[in-house]
Amino acid sequence: MNLQSASREQLQAFEAELSQQYDTYQAAGLNLDLTRGKPSTEQVALSNNLDGILSGNYFAADGTDLRNYGGLDGLPEMKQLFADTFGLDASSIAIAGNSSLTLMYQSVMFAQHFGLGAEAWNKEEGEVKFLCPVPGYDRHFSICEELGIAMIPVAMNENGPLMDEVEALIKADPMIKGIWCVPRFSNPTGCVYSAEVVGRIAALGKIAGKGFKVFWDNAYAVHVLNDNAEELTSITDCAKDAGTEDNILLFGSTSKVTFAGAGVAFLAAASPALSAFKKHLAISSIGPDKVNQQRHIDLLKDAEGFKRHMAKHAVILKPRFDIVEKHLSEGLAAAGIATWLKPEGGYFVSFDSMPGLAKEVVAMAAKAGVKLTPAGATYPYGDDPLDTNIRIAPTYPAIEDIDQAMGIFVTCVKLASVRKLLS
Ligand code: PLP
User: Fold this and answer.
1) What digits encode the pLDDT tens for the residues 138-174?
2) Which CATH number belongs to the domain containing residue 10 in this structure?
3) Residue-number span of the structural domain to which 18 is assigned
4) Which domain-ending residue is among 301, 317, 346?
5) 283 shares a domain with 337
6) What is the mean pLDDT of the chain?
7) Pairing of strands 129-134, 176-181
8) Whose CA is nearest to atom 2 of ligand 1?
9) Can you tell me which atom of ligand 1 is nearest the CA of 186?
10) Closest Cα to atom 6, ligand 1: which residue?
11) Phi and psi at residue 160, in whole multiples of 5°?
12) Which one of 20, 70, 112, 189 is most buried, by most CB atoms within 10 A?
């Protein structure tokens, strides 16, 4: 039944039915959690062979002793593995640490204070600003907040950020120094940026103020749910064509490939920025964990091995995403009170309620024992102006828990919507 066109009597009857259902859930005292954007225990177990894989051989192919300092920007074989998997040039890659988020934080800080192949942002008059496509990844926004960078939200659709708006903002303000992008299976919408959007983002350096950087966070580049998932156009190829390679910083890691928090992360950039990054990195590190890099080379081997490994993740993840979609489409598709995208990869489903209801739905679900990411978390400063967006993270819980939690979630959405329509 489309609730938007239902009569008042129909809505009242439905409200009574849903309230009863909701009370039953509340009484059950459940404790379910759809907040955690991290791999499940089954997924991390796919990489258990990392343990002991070196069998006591602590030397890299070129004879480097992995146990000792040095090799600041990573082992050549690890660079090649990332280059082949992400469609990059190995010479553009620096491998450092276990976290791409740390590399993003460092890049913003270095660009701000020292400059990354350009003058430091804070040498210019005026407040540094970033464009933040929304809904987006809360930790990107936290980096800006921590480093005193003002955030300007820009809407997205299923093709990525609205580029007319992005270009107009950038043309009007040379103090916009960055844009956050999660281009394939965006966190949280799951969209894949279209070829047109990638091309236009690559060319932003031509119209932006000096030192502008695209923060291309390809966290979910290879995290597909099916083999036919939409591909992403190469931003580095587009930037080469546009002559804007200096404006692109690309990030990735094996966090959701092998062990989250015990993987390998990289930054890829053209040389003025890359060499500047490495110069500053060298002050803060004598060398990365090469033992772990070698373990990853031995486990994943090459781009095909990487792909085969990701296919095992997909077997675990697809049923979880299918359950979410089943509840949403069966419970809400006909009701006309919500929208969502059906992702072909990544870690999230992004859900939009009727305006003004996201906080209410999250609070209702919590009372019925289902923890959801706080409404607003997907917007800069935690402020979703329309109060519609809710991020659903189905990778970590057991399938039965997702099934139960989504049933409750759908009931909460319907109940909150019916009450709003009656008010
Ligand atoms: N970027 C995005 C978009 C993410 O969703 C996440 C983790 O949830 C990260 C980066 C963190 O990556 P890493 O573990 O490499 O720091």
Assistant:
1) 999 999 999 999 999 999 999 999 999 999 999 999 9
2) 3.90.1150.10
3) 3-43+307-422
4) 301
5) no
6) 97
7) parallel
8) 219
9) 3
10) 219
11) 115, -165
12) 189
Residues with beta carbon inside 6 Å of ligand 1? Answer: 37, 99-101, 137, 182, 187, 217, 219, 253, 255, 265
- What is the domain count for the chain? 2
Which residue has its alpha carbon closest to ligand 1 atom 8? Answer: 37
Residue 368: what are its φ and ψ, rounded to 5°?
A: -95, 15
For residue 419, how many other CB atoms are within 10 A of its CB?
A: 16
Asked if 332 and 221 sit in the same domain, the reply is: no
**Residue 143 sits in the same domain as residue 85:** yes
pLDDT in tens, 25-44: 999 999 999 999 999 999 99
CA 93 – ligand 1 centroid, Å: 18
Q: Tell me how far apart the alpha carbons of residues 423 and 411 are, in angstroms, rounded to a whole number.
A: 18
Measured from the Cα of 102, ligand 1's closest atom is: 16
Q: What is the whole-number distance in angstroms between the Cα of residue 14 and the centre of ligand 1? A: 41
- Ligand 1 atom 5: residue of nearest CA: 187
Residues 225/318, Cβ–Cβ less than 8 Å: yes
User: Of ligand 1's atoms, which has the minimum distance to the CA of residue 137?
Assistant: 3
The number of beta carbons lying within 10 Å of the beta carbon of residue 13 is: 13
The first and second tokens of residue 184, run together, are 């394939």
- Domain identity same for 274 and 332: no
Same-domain pairing of 103 and 209: yes
Distance, CA of 52 to chain centre = 31
Count Cα neighbours of 384 within 13 Å in the Cβ-side half-sphere: 25
Map residue 50 onto helix, strand or coil. Answer: helix
- Position in ligand 1 atom list of the atom nearest CA 217: 1
Q: Which residues pair with 267 in a beta bridge?
A: 94, 251
Q: What is the mean pLDDT of residues 282-308?
A: 97
Side chain identity at residue 178, one-letter code: G
Same domain? For 315 and 297 the reply is no
CA 145/CA 379 separation, integer angstroms: 12
C-alpha pair distances (Å), 164 with each of 196, 233, 243, 321: 12, 19, 21, 32
Q: How far is the CA of 173 from the centre of ligand 1 (A)?
A: 29
The predicted pLDDT at position 1 comes to 84
Summarize the confidence of residues 320-328 as an average pLDDT.
98
Considering the domain architecture, whether residues 164 and 282 belong to the same structural domain is answered as: yes
